[in-house]
Inverse folding.
């Protein structure tokens, strides 16, 4: 049997779904991965895993009708040529256009993985965003009409999809704990000696809480000049991106230490005392938070969908109000005030990931839900949350 996995970025196929693709191969499936970009390193790694890579036309952002039609036609052509039994798509455009394309092939079982609803479903009430949200909801509705199941990373997204009538009566909604973390790859590391070091890892977007992080850093350093604030992440073309010039100004002024971008975050996590993600973006379940927790770092994050999911207040981290700089400052000062706090919360964070968020647990749930565990993966003991759209109507 053959499965096609559709993504919006080739790198994510290895970084976020590599272990899932390997599990599919191990279960005897022929696996084809699709994304729009050509990355020789990623394609070579996929080939070594036994995965075939197909490039498809897709603009990751924007709503260009001509470009989106090319994406749809590209997927239809790919599905016609490959004749898959199953298609699994994740992130917005792959879900929408894979779902529509799959409706043209009666034999294909389509599954959607909603790793986060993103900016379109934020609480911003601008008229333009409302129109875009209505359009995206309509596209989702068409794409998911024949989906065998929709995987979500948090209960908030499930409720939001019901509120916008995206899900159809009888649609299976299955909550899984994110992408999962490879606990051997993200091994536990002791808190380094020396001054407190806070680390933020994110795409350089305003709604990831960059401005709040920098302003909080400035205030904390007035009280604790030895505290350090590191920032790691790629520049972005998104309209809400922070410019290179602004990042360089922050770095030059000493507010933060910008570390650039990397494909291996582990050394930076190991060098930090505590992890911070002050996002006011509608996350799914941030992989950066889970990776930091796996390494043994406590987390300061916001009371936002996805972000709050793995955090127990005062046990493995702190949850603050979104866009509240003073609350962020107070949480940072709580970490600094007691030298044992970082280690104590970091130990609890690692245990949280071990018990709930390991990649083996997540992949077993996904394979079981898609009926792909035919070679004996036992998913009966794993907590899968399953329900139809109508069953959650009372939550709205």
């Amino acid at each position: 049997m053959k499965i096609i996995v559709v993504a919006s970025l080739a790198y994510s196929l290895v970084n976020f779904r590599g272990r899932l693709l390997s599990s599919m191969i191990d279960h005897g499936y022929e696996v084809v991965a699709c994304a729009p970009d050509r990355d020789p390193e990623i394609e070579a790694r996929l080939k070594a895993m036994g995965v075939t890579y197909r490039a498809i036309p897709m603009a990751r952002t924007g709503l260009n009708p001509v470009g989106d039609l090319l994406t749809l036609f590209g997927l239809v052509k790919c599905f016609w040529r490959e004749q898959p039994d199953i298609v699994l798509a994740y992130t917005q455009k792959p879900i929408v256009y894979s779902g529509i394309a799959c409706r043209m092939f009666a034999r294909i079982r389509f599954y959607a993985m909603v790793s986060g609803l993103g900016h379109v479903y934020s609480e911003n009430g601008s008229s333009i965003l409302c129109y875009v949200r209505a359009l995206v909801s309509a596209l989702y509705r068409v794409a998911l009409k024949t989906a065998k199941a929709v995987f979500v990373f948090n209960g908030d997204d499930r409720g939001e999809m019901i509120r916008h009538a995206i899900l159809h009566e009888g649609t299976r909604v299955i909550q899984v704990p994110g992408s999962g973390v490879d606990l051997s790859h993200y091994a536990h590391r002791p808190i380094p000696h020396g001054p407190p070091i806070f680390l933020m890892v994110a795409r350089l977007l305003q709604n990831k809480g960059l401005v709040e992080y920098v302003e909080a850093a400035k205030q904390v350093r007035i009280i604790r000049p030895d505290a350090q604030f590191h920032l790691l992440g790629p520049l972005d073309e998104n309209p809400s991106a922070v410019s290179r010039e602004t990042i360089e100004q922050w770095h030059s002024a000493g507010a933060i230490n910008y570390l650039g971008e990397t494909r291996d975050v582990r050394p930076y996590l190991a060098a930090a005392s505590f992890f911070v993600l002050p996002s006011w973006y509608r996350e799914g379940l941030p992989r950066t938070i889970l990776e930091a927790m796996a390494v043994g770092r406590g987390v300061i994050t916001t009371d936002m969908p996805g972000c709050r999911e793995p955090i127990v207040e005062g046990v493995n981290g702190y949850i603050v109000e979104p866009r509240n700089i003073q609350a962020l400052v107070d949480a940072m000062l709580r970490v600094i005030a007691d030298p044992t706090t970082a280690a104590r919360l970091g130990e609890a964070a690692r245990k949280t990931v071990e018990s709930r968020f390991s990649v083996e647990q997540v992949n077993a749930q996904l394979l079981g839900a898609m009926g792909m565990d035919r070679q004996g993966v036992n998913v009966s003991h794993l907590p899968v949350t399953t329900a139809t759209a109508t069953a959650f109507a009372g939550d709205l």
